[in-house]
Amino acid sequence: MTTPRHSGRSADQLREISFQPGIAPHASGSVLVSFGNTQVICAASIEEGVPRWMKEQGVAGGWLTAEYSMLPYSTTPRKSRDSTRGKIDGRSTEIQRLIGRSLRAGIDLEALGSRTLWVDCDVLQADGGTRTASITGASIAMAIACNRLVQDGKLSKSPISRRIAAVSIGLVGSQVLLDLDYLEDKDAEVDLNLVMTGELEYIELQASGEESIFGEAQLAEMLEYGRRGITEIVLKQEEVLKNI
Questions:
Q1: What is the CATH number of the domain that holds 61?
Q2: Does the residue 7 lie in any domain?
Q3: What is the pLDDT of residue 210?
Q4: Count of domains forming the chain
Q5: What is the residue range of 132's domain?
Q6: What is the mean pLDDT of the chain?
Q7: Please, which residues have CB within 8 angstroms of residue 213's CB and are 6 or more apart in sequence?
Q8: Is residue 9 part of a domain?
Q9: What is the 3-state secondary structure (H, E, C) of the chain?
Q10: pLDDT given for residue 120 in this prediction
């Protein structure tokens, strides 16, 4: 017996997902990604040159790094800016490292050349799944930015090697649910964030019990829901990029 979701979605149904490219005109590539009521501005900027540590260690190619933040009005109550507190909170640091790791799996950094690809993910509205929405949207933003390098004659072909997408899955009331919103996420016994390539290869899997445990059968079901969701998301990504 399955319990109906408050949104009316089926257990394995994604929220409505949309992408609005060109949201930040001064970036090399940008998109406003929406997973239901969660909205994130993802912008990719390309800078000539690489970090000093790469030069000192003689590392060839370029680099990709990500920054993540939640705008003060993205939640209720208002969230203070990191600059006001004088430091980035631990959650934001962990998420931006996840975004960077995930996106580096989708680009040939050596083919990028001696350049740094900066990816900024700013949460406009938070309703669960901000990290997975950020990764999904940023994959499009960096693809647009790299296509611009080709259009400008700086590269002969795009260094993008694969599409990257992410989705959340969880156990709520012992029921597996795909793409949790905030109301579901706050009550989840198990929370899983899945990052995969367009070919359904794993990049990162973050699963944890919230004062709870889960077995192999439940993990297998969560991963199956996740793979279905990723397949659908990648199709939406490709559709957007095809029309740019």
A1: 3.30.230.70
A2: no
A3: 82
A4: 1
A5: 17-242
A6: 95
A7: none
A8: no
A9: CCCCCCCCCCCCCCCCEEEEECCCCCCCEEEEEEECCEEEEEEEEEEECCCHHHHHHCCCCCEEEEEEEECHHHCCCCCCCHHHHCCCCHHHHHHHHHHHHHHHCCECHHHHCCEEEEEEEEEEECCCCHHHHHHHHHHHHHHHHHHHHHHCCCCCCCCECCCEEEEEEEEECCEEEECCCHHHHCCCCEEEEEEEECCCCEEEEEEEECCCCCCHHHHHHHHHHHHHHHHHHHHHHHHHHHCC
A10: 98
Asked whether 143 and 29 are in contact (CB, 8 A), the reply is yes
Question: Does residue 17 register a pLDDT over 90?
Answer: yes
| pLDDT tens-digit readout, 79-106 | 888 767 777 788 899 999 999 999 999 9
10 found inside a domain: no
What angle separates helix 130-151 from helix 216-242, to the nearest 10 degrees? Answer: 30
Residues in the chain: 244
pLDDT of residue 85: 73
Structure-block tokens of residue 97: 């490292």
Q: Does residue 27 lie within any of the structural domains?
A: yes
Percent of the chain with pLDDT over 90: 90
Task: Give 158-191 pLDDT, tens digit per residue.
Answer: 999 999 999 999 999 999 999 999 999 999 999 9
200: left (phi over 0), alpha (psi -120 to 50) or beta: left
| Tokens 């944890």 belong to residue | 208
What the block records as the tokens of 6 is 């408050």
